[in-house]
């Protein structure tokens, strides 16, 4: 069927009832770490993201979006709204360790596949639900969308220029963080099951995870009771820590403490600032951030971005260019770290995917299955795992269960 799994989760089997991004991110990580992931998709249409295009991968009908979150998975088409489909899910669950789903609250219960309906029958099952607002609370029935969660979770109020409108982050961070927290919860539940033999339910709400990663800005509010303002690219607690224009573009300058600021000033003819109490300490620089910006901007314009990077790196002062994605994937460090992986795809093309960043010395991530075609593994799973005959599979296809 495919190359045998390897990695720290080798031997675990995951039933993946997720679509779009939060759930598939979670299950892709599990697959990268060696779990066998069986992705259940709707017959004919499949995961919604198969249609999130353009762009498609060149010379294929596969969306780049789908390819980014679905490697190391076996695609099985199955209509779980049909009793025959539900029966197949139950047969798969007999050998599954983990179920991950991101249906609306209560939706799977209609098919007899909710946590409360499965927990006694499969006591070792770890059941992870990822929804917009979690399983409880007044918003639980609402659908969750990344931009909506970014708005309701506060990050949009913090992102953008001070005089501009609120801005969402340029990638779907609400989805991605929910998937990451889901994976963390599953790994914790696996350890608990190892100790007790018992599975459990993991309730991941995108809004919960979004509030959790408000981090220093959330704590700034809790400490003061005041809403942090939008600061553009400036740091709320450190100055200067922002973008500056250079002779030919922009650079990020990240001066994290007073000794570094002193080193910066002495190297570039700004010693007089060290005697000015408005610049002497980080709290004062934060208090006078506009003065700091106005003072350093003409200085930063005197060199090109490359010249600044070379000069600042020699002094061990944090800095970096503001790269486009073309720059990112051409960066020699990104290439040296193997951040892109090539995989042979069932279409006959080679696809490139963004690598898993978890670097394990003994059990590294395993890239064994390219993102699958819709239903690519249906027959192999039904025959190999469940022992269905060709006639039984044909009958299911005739009924449009598969």
Automatic annotation (TrEMBL):
Alphabetical UniProt keywords: Transferase
* InterPro entries in UniProt: CoA-transferase_III_domain, CoA-Trfase_fam_III, CoA-Trfase_III_dom3_sf, CoA-Trfase_III_dom_1_sf
This protein's source sits in the domain of life called: Bacteria
Q: Which GO terms describe its molecular function?
A: transferase activity
One Pfam family cited in the UniProt record for this chain: CoA_transf_3
> Does the record carry Transferase as a key word?
yes
Q: Which Gene3D superfamilies does this chain map to?
A: Crotonobetainyl-coa:carnitine coa-transferase, domain 1, formyl-coa transferase, domain 3
Q: Which PANTHER family match?
A: SUCCINATE--HYDROXYMETHYLGLUTARATE COA-TRANSFERASE
Q: What is this protein called?
A: CoA transferase
């Amino acid at each position: 069927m495919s190359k045998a799994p390897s990695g720290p989760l080798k031997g675990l089997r995951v039933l993946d009832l997720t679509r779009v991004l939060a759930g598939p991110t979670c299950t892709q990580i599990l697959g990268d770490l060696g779990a066998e992931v069986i992705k259940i998709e709707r017959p004919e249409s499949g995961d919604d993201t198969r249609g999130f295009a353009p762009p498609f991968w060149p010379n294929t009908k596969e969306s780049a979006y789908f390819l980014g979150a679905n490697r190391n998975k076996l695609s099985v088409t199955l209509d779980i709204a049909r009793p025959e489909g539900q029966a197949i899910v139950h047969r798969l669950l007999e050998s599954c360790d983990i179920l991950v789903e991101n249906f609306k609250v209560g939706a799977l219960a209609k098919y007899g596949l909710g946590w409360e309906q499965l927990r006694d029958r499969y006591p070792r099952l770890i059941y992870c639900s990822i929804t917009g607002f979690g399983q409880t609370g007044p918003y639980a029935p609402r659908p969750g969308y990344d931009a909506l969660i970014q708005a309701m979770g506060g990050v949009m109020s913090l992102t953008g220029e001070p005089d501009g409108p609120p801005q969402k982050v340029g990638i779907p961070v609400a989805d991605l963080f929910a998937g990451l927290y889901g994976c963390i919860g599953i790994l914790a539940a696996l350890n608990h099951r190892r100790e007790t033999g018992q599975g459990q339910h993991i309730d991941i709400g995108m809004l919960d995870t979004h509030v959790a990663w408000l981090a220093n800005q959330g704590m700034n509010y809790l400490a003061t009771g005041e809403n942090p303002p939008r600061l553009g690219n400036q740091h709320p607690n450190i100055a200067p820590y922002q973008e500056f224009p250079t002779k030919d573009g922009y650079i990020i300058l990240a001066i994290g403490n007073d000794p570094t600021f002193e080193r910066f000033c002495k190297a570039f003819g700004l010693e007089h600032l060290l005697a000015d109490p408005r610049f002497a300490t980080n709290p004062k620089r934060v208090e006078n951030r506009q003065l700091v910006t106005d003072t350093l901007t003409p200085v930063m314009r005197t060199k090109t971005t490359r010249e600044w990077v070379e000069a600042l790196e020699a002094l061990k002062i944090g800095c970096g260019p503001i790269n486009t994605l073309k720059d990112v994937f051409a960066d020699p460090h990104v290439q040296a770290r193997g951040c892109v992986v090539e995989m042979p795809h069932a279409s006959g093309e080679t696809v490139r995917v963004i690598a898993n960043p978890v670097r394990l010395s003994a059990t590294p991530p395993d890239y064994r299955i390219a993102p699958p075609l819709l239903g690519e593994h249906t027959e192999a799973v039904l025959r190999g795992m469940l022992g269905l005959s060709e006639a039984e599979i044909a009958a299911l296809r005739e009924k449009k269960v598969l």
